[in-house]
Specification:
single chain, 174 residues, alpha/beta, six-stranded mixed beta sheet, five-stranded mixed beta sheet, 4 helices, 11 strands, 20% helix, globular
């Protein structure tokens, strides 16, 4: 499996998670379609899923255009985000698994605080987590819907992951 970082907007990242054996891939938090589609074309992969960490536009803005281009593409987000994530077709909860190809597998971590439907995707191999706006390089996302207690519990949960876990952030400015 390989992870490709895609700069989006002026301050966001999206990610391609590529199964190198099958050339199938998932995209995490496509904030806009154009740079994500360019990366997909450059990598020569077939998108099977979009994995959204929460419903904010700077994480889901490219969903529908990507799904339109890749027929049958699953749009994954937390079950409580039903009706708030454009094109959502898969409604996950804590502990659910998502997979693409033979190599890309993740477990859903429910981490409310930034929003009430915030989730992270935890890969076992390589050990990596995609946290959306729950975790930033110098802190955490604002509390738009959740409570301080929820955010604290979510941050404690993420800090309990094995030290070898690579953390992939969505927002690049501090």
């Amino acid at each position: 499996m390989r992870i490709v970082t895609i700069p989006c907007r002026s301050d966001n990242y999206s990610y391609l998670l590529i199964c190198e054996e099958t050339r199938d891939a998932a995209v995490v938090d496509p904030s806009e379609a154009a740079p994500v589609l360019a990366a997909i074309e450059a990598e020569g992969v077939n998108i099977k899923a979009v994995w959204n960490t929460h419903h904010h536009f700077d994480h889901v803005g490219g969903n529908q255009e990507i799904a339109k281009k890749f027929s049958g593409c699953a749009i994954v987000a937390h079950e409580s985000d039903k009706g708030r994530v454009p094109g959502q077709t898969v409604f996950v909860k804590e502990g659910d698994s998502v997979a693409v190809g033979k190599e890309v597998r993740a477990t859903v971590i429910f981490n409310p605080g930034h929003t009430t439907g915030a989730i992270s995707y935890l890969l076992e191999s390589p050990a990596a987590v995609f946290t959306g706006d729950t975790l930033f390089a110098a802190g955490c996302g604002r509390l738009f819907e959740g409570t301080a207690a929820q955010m604290h519990a979510s941050l404690v949960r993420l800090t309990s992951l094995p030290k070898a876990t690579q953390i992939y952030l969505s927002l690049i400015h501090i």
